[in-house]
Amino acid sequence: MAEMDRILRPQGTFIVRDDNETIGEIEKMVKSLKWDVRMTQSKDGGVLAVQKSWWRPTEVDTITSAIAKA
């Protein structure tokens, strides 16, 4: 996901088709990156479409995150 965040431009769309467990994990990751979940569809497998937002962490967010993990 870090590589997708680096490559994909803001407002770009990322579509994943996989099993429901993998879709759930990816959805958690993209939400933590502040991406917008546009579509989730499940049956035997799942489809997830997300759109990258313009959000970037501020200096305070970065410092708080680093301190919280220490």
Automatic annotation (TrEMBL):
Protein name according to UniProt: Methyltransferase
Localisation per UniProt entry: Membrane
GO annotation (BP), single: methylation
Topological category with respect to the lipid bilayer: Single-pass type II membrane protein
Top EC group: transferase
Gene Ontology molecular function terms on file: methyltransferase activity
Similarity section: Belongs to the methyltransferase superfamily.
Any one Pfam family match given in the protein's UniProt record, by short name: Methyltransf_29
Keywords: Glycoprotein, Membrane, Methyltransferase, Signal-anchor, Transferase, Transmembrane, Transmembrane helix
This enzyme's EC code(s): 2.1.1.-
Gene Ontology CC terms, in alphabetical order: endosome; membrane; trans-Golgi network
InterPro entries: Put_SAM_MeTrfase
